[in-house]
Amino acid sequence: MAAPKRGRSASAQSKPGRSLALILIAIVALTGGMFASGHTTPRLGIDLAGGTSITLKAKADQGSAINKANMDTAVDIMNRRVNGLGVSEAEVQTQGTDNIIVNIPKGTNSAEAQQQVGTTAKLYFRPVLASEPSGAAAQSPSPSASSSGGSSPKPGASPSGSASPQQATSGSASPTGTATSQGRAVTDALKAGSTPSPSGSASGSAKPSATPSAPSSGKPSGDTALQARYAALNCAKPADRANAGKNARPGQPTVACGENDGAWFKYLLGPAAVDGTEVKKAQAVFDTQGASGWQVQMTFTSGGGKKFADITGELAKNQTPQNEFGIVLDGEVVSSPFVHGAITGGQAEISGSFKQEEAQNLANMLSYGALPLSFREESVTTVTAALGGEQLRAGLLAGAIGLALVVIYLVVYYRGLSLVAMASLVVSAILTYLIMTLLGPAIGFALNLPAVCGAIVAIGITADSFIVYFERIRDEIREGRSLRPAVERAWPRARRTILVSDFVSFLAAAVLFIVTVGKVQGFAFTLGLTTLLDVVVVFLFTKPLMTLLARRKFFADGHKWSGLDPKGLGAKPPLRRTRRSAGPAGPVDPKEA
């Protein structure tokens, strides 16, 4: 019965190379992924790379609650805003249940970003004077208008469709090209009687008059300048999109961009006719009785309903695209529906070939033209690049000192075994670096100073696992076993201890990550990641490597510098490998005599 057991043990011991090959393949694959992603260094956080970090705390307004939907909507609007500043690597994300963290890297106008990020979004309903594809989309033929006065899809959140006046408007999502030349179309749009003129109001909302008139500026030079801006606008360029409607006043015409299915379109828009704050409610609903599918239903305030009735009545008299109005959020056209007639009663519907997500997104934009929640600044931290570099160097120096102390301890106390520990630490460091580098572009992970501290603490956790295993091996040798069986007998006991210890560390990191906000989460995330990697390294590298070294004479014979010298460890004499069974003396064979 004993022989098969020894055979299975020998078979298990003879294949440690499989585990070592597996971890080598993992390192090669991660390295390949790192170079393929184009990122060869971990993404640094604001406190290490320099920049501005703004912490905003949500406050519930009347009729709104702090919940995930409202927080996600606020993050989306803030993201649009901060990206409109030309910030390519800015981060806007929720932390906890009522905090939003905005990280703006160095080289950005942080003062402007700080001013805009938490303020109320600006949503307006503006009449469309002209629209056409912009950039690459301008190369394709323009869609023609339908005989009924509707239009083909226009950019925004929804595809096109038709609706009766009772239904308000038909959703549309891409602009219609005009048969006339661009210059003539813009000039006619600015000067023709089809443009409703706003009445001056304190809120900046425009009330169309029954009598058509030119824009409020009344200066040909202003019309010419706007026409030139529209002609030169290329919405395929991020810089042009960001500056298209910049500093535009509600009572003046402007230009803007809109996107649909990856294509950009440019718009010439008249003065704002309805302010977004006059949308009382908007929701996405599914039309179960008709063929319209998903729709967006809007309810206006009493004043907004009258203004909307006036502007839709005026727009319905015009031909496409001047029978449309652009829903403009923070200077970008998110939808441009057309109308068939005046829409009264303070309620409207936008219908078309909506998908559920498209309808919900448009409803959110209409409902939360103002942010769904109010925010107050909890903290604003600005870190210069020089200070960030100093903090990074200080963190790396602290890590180097901690690592050096651990290595010195291992060399003095474990001697030859310290080579196993140091090799395992190197493998763990390589895996940590590669995974952190890949997590940057994958999930936006940024290495901040608390995360560096978590990595330093992980050095001790990883070294502790090696120490547990080494001490179990030494205990077996003290009991008189030779090294090879000692390595195998010590592993099950050490494995249980290592798993329990790492589970406790990971549990603490997970709880810390869940209950904290801000940069402390970086510490918890790194601690949890390195704890998991500790298990991987110990199982797939440390144990197999120890099995291989147990076959080497230097370790197997218990050299005094191996760290496994039986005499130095106080092994019980005699060693088990030297025991012999002493039976009773039997008769002597005459032949042997």
Notable characteristics:
593 residues; alpha+beta; 5-stranded mixed beta barrel; 4-stranded antiparallel β-sheet; 17 helices; 14 strands; 47% helix; disordered N terminus
Could you outline the blueprint of secondary structure elements for this entry?
Blueprint (H helix, E strand, L loop, with lengths): L1 H12 L2 H22 L8 H4 L1 E9 L8 H17 L6 E5 L3 E7 L4 H8 L5 E11 L34 E3 L11 H10 L28 H13 L5 H6 L10 E7 L2 E7 L4 E2 L3 E9 L5 E8 L1 H14 L9 E5 L2 E4 L11 E8 L1 H12 L6 E10 L1 H30 L2 H27 L5 H30 L4 H33 L4 H30 L3 H4 L9 H4 L24
Parallel strand pairs: 5-13, 6-12
Antiparallel strand pairs: 1-3, 1-14, 2-3, 4-7, 4-8, 4-11, 6-7, 9-10, 10-13, 11-12
Q: In what order do the strands lie side by side in the largest sheet?
A: 4-7-6-12-11
Number of strands: 14
Q: Spans of 5+ residues with little confidence (pLDDT < 50)?
A: 1-13, 139-221
| Helix run count | 17
- How far apart the termini lie comes to 37 Å
Mean pLDDT level: 74
Assembly level: single chain
Strand content: 15-25%
Give Rg in angstroms: 36 Å
Share of helical residues:
40-55%
Category from helices, strands and their pairing: alpha+beta
In short:
The chain is α+β, with helices and mostly antiparallel strands and about 600 residues long.
Can you describe this structure?
The chain is built from 17 helices and 14 strands. With 593 residues, it is an alpha+beta fold. α11 runs antiparallel to α12 and α14 runs antiparallel to α15 (520-549). The protein is elongated, with a radius of gyration of 36 Å. The two termini are 37 Å apart.
